[in-house]
Specification:
InterPro entries: P-loop_NTPase (IPR027417), Shikimate/glucono_kinase (IPR031322), Shikimate_kinase/TSH1 (IPR000623), Shikimate_kinase_CS (IPR023000). It is found in: Cytoplasm. About 55% of the residues lie in helices and about 15% in strands. It is of the alpha/beta class. α1 packs across α8, α2 crosses α4 and α6 crosses α7. The protein binds adenosine-5'-diphosphate, shikimate-3-phosphate and magnesium ion. The site of adenosine-5'-diphosphate has 16 residues, from α1 and α8.
């Protein structure tokens, strides 16, 4: 039995994409807190936020984190998971936490190509490039202090997976 692996980081850093590939590489299950929420509520993130507001979405997100936590599982979290200290503590106590780090211009570029508006309603009302700059300024310290390992997310998904595996095996060996 191995501890769950949590992927954290801002929108567009690749948590969902890399998480699926990492789970296959390890032979683990895969889960995603946003997918879990969509499945259990039958609503998109945008619909939940529009009808209940962000505070309610954040409360549901905390419940999802607990619900999807299981051994031998890779868990892609939503970008705002670290906003609640209780979530940060929970992830550090229950598994290995990996931060997929990329600069705001790279994130904005990915999100402009693949906005997935139902999954990512605006956080600030500002244009995406400015929004991602604001978000990283606000959250970078939370990602940094919550993560056991930081990985450069500006590489191909396969390379990111390799780097994560390397970080985890080095951690096990030491
Ligand atoms: N390492 C990567 N290199 C290039 N594009 C990526 C990478 N990881 C993810 N993407 C692309 O960026 C977008 C957001 O990826 P996603 O996995 O949904 O990110 P997150 O779950 O962190 O918001 C998708 O279009 C995806 O194909
Ligand atoms: O950064 C955020 O606050 C959010 C990121 C989204 O997930 P991804 O990071 O998977 O896009 C989703 O949870 C929601 O729109 C809020
Ligand atoms: Mg995602």
């Amino acid at each position: 039995m191995s501890l769950p692996i949590y992927l954290i980081g801002a929108r567009g850093c690749g948590k969902t994409t890399v998480g699926q590939a990492l789970s296959q590489a390890l032979g683990y299950a895969f889960n995603d807190t946003d997918h879990y929420l969509q499945l259990t509520t039958q609503r998109s993130v945008a619909e939940i936020v529009a009808s209940e507001g962000w505070d309610s979405f954040r409360a549901r997100e905390t419940e999802s984190l607990r619900a999807v936590t299981a051994p031998n599982t890779v868990i892609a979290t939503g970008g705002g998971m670290v906003l609640a200290e209780v979530n940060c503590r929970f992830m550090r106590e229950h598994g290995q936490v990996i931060w997929l780090n990329a600069p705001s211009d790279v994130l904005a570029d990915r999100l402009e190509h693949q906005p997935e508006a139902a999954q990512r309603p605006t956080l600030t009302g500002r244009p995406i490039a400015e929004e991602m700059g604001d978000i990283l300024r606000e959250r970078a310290h939370l990602y940094r202090q919550t993560a056991h390992h930081e990985v450069n997310a500006m590489q191909s998904p396969d390379r990111v997976v390799e780097q994560i595996l390397q970080s985890l095996s080095l951690a096990r060996a030491s």
